[in-house]
């Protein structure tokens, strides 16, 4: 089940990227090049060992959610893992579900920190509407494209996630100027309400 959800999200992500590229560029060569850059989600600056550790934490986290009483969280909350830290983005009905996630995921071997960006909303259905989901995918796709073409930004070092118009950027920045520029470039996108920049400076 975990792999099915991952595949569906990947398929829609790539689909959104391709459509966004067709809308934003009239150059076929530019489309193919930018899609290759945008679809590449693994940070270049991370070692193979670190990437393996992060993927292991991610799969363990998803498995925990699917096998728990709060199974719906696996669909309503997006999880990213970078350098042994878990980033949670989404919307849940009550605070008990949010606290459960934090408690359970913090028990995973290797997890150093958890960043909680979950919104508690008693009216939420637990799932993003189709319209909002598609809109978020397009914002993510266009943000990746903006970063890919922005000077002095190594876009392959970043993972981008959008939830309800809020853009989250995770990855390794070369220096403080690049980290600050990320927020500036991402904030100019149509439909972007806010940018949360979790980039860290590479040592």
Question: What would you say this structure looks like, in words?
Answer:
By secondary structure, the chain is an alpha/beta fold. The protein is built from 7 helices and 6 strands. It has helices spanning 2-24, 28-38, 48-66, 73-76, 95-105, 130-149, 176-187, and strands at residues 77-82, 85-92, 113-120, 158-163, 166-173, 194-201. A 3-stranded mixed sheet has the order 1-2-3. A 3-stranded mixed sheet has the order 4-5-6. It is globular. The protein starts with a helix and ends with a strand. Residues 1-8 and 20-43 have low confidence and may be disordered.
List keywords for this structure.
single chain; about 200 residues; about 50% helix; alpha/beta; disordered N terminus; three-stranded mixed beta sheet; 7 helices; globular; 2 domains; Histidine-containing Protein, Chain: A
User: What is the ordering of alpha helices and beta strands?
Assistant: HHHHEEHEHEEHE
Low-confidence stretches: 1-8, 20-43
Instruction: Walk across the major sheet and give the strand order.
Output: 1-2-3
Q: What is the global morphology?
A: globular
| Number of beta strands | 6
